[in-house]
DNA sequence: TCTGGGGTCCTAGGACCC
DNA sequence: TCTGGGGTCCTAGGACCC
């Protein structure tokens, strides 16, 4: 008996989360902005219809938004993360083989059965999540992950399917002929341009393309996409996520920054965030990379990013130690007079904390680890940043804009919704 | 004036070794 | 005159994803 893949995708996820606690938003055009209130990262169907594009810079569609009184929110990731957890937990109760693929998507693997039974199963999942969490989802079925993705798109776009769609065996090619090649999962703009030079514009044409040519021009990944379109499953379900390999933390500044002191404060804050995440994952880092970026969209000289990585002699998850190492690297990268738009840190070479090899010359400081543990507990209980390193600064005049944020309804005691 | 943030995998090329 | 070949490891950059 074969198996079948299904992709569950939350519709307009961030917008749906905002609507959950704000019924006034139902049926209204709503958008959610990226971290710096920079561009559009989620749109309700009404907003899509107005022609607001995904990833579009906010300032460029501002007039359209004002003209149609579109509701605008800064992103509220603690809220979205919490709602996501509820969706995934419920799905895990309904289906045994689930891979959480992203904040708003999960793959499911099921035994093949009749189309009618699969559709009923899909509708049950959709109804349960709608009823118990309040988030609308779409579900697509297909013989491979890539085909399930395509089925999901159809489930979402063609309303007559009511959110659940199974790719038909008969007439599949006709359907693939209607899917643009850059809508196929794994085909980005670069690959699409390459494929266009060969006259390949649809998923069907990619499916029938020459393997040798694909291997040469799109690499092993491109060939794999074609195989998946042919129904040959190359991408397995990954139910237990492997340990992470890197942790990044960065933000764009609210305005250009030139002073080393400001950069140091911002960097310390991001290092603190990354280190807390590292400890939460029970890992230590063996290397860190710092980078500085100037104007990311300058027409004349393009974007300039200076980065530098250092290896640590001994893996650590100690915030003060990481802050001081990061500050030393920053000082070497910094050029006076340059105006910077972004600074960031990446922790690399992660390893499980329990496997850490103590150094002969510098035994692990038990008290320091306990201190970090206490810090994490306090910040978890009383809110992030209750206690932080003085290096992170207090003025924070580099801090980015987030002027339209909704409350952390479900994750902060201070911001619980009030029923009157 | 104003353009996010956090990830993964693949590949080519250099360093190094025998 | 004539200057090997193959393997491994590491890294930076590219491409893609949500």
Kindly describe this structure.
This protein has 420 residues and is α+β, with helices and mostly antiparallel strands. The protein has three domains: 1-167, Alpha-Beta Plaits; 179-241, 5' to 3' exonuclease, C-terminal subdomain (DNA polymerase, domain 1), CATH 1.10.150; 247-392, DNA polymerase, Y-family, little finger domain (Dna Ligase, domain 1, 2-Layer Sandwich). Helices cover 39% and strands 21% of the residues. It has 13 helices and twelve strands. The chain has helices spanning 13-20, 45-49, 58-67, 77-94, 115-132, 145-157, 172-176, 189-196, 203-207, 211-229, 260-280, 319-333, 366-382; strands at 3-10, 30-33, 40-43, 71-74, 98-102, 105-111, 137-142, 164-166, 247-257, 283-293, 305-316, 340-352. The chain has a five-stranded mixed beta sheet with strand order 5-6-1-7-8. Strands 9-12-10-11 form a four-stranded antiparallel beta sheet, with helices on one face. β7, α6 and β8 form a beta-alpha-beta unit. α4 (77-94) packs across α5 and α11 (260-280) runs antiparallel to α12 (319-333). The protein is globular. The structure holds a DNA duplex (18 and 18 nucleotides). One of its GO terms (biological process) is SOS response. It comes from Desulfurivibrio alkaliphilus. GO terms for molecular function: damaged DNA binding; DNA-directed DNA polymerase activity. Belongs to the DNA polymerase type-Y family. Residues 5-188 form the UmuC domain.
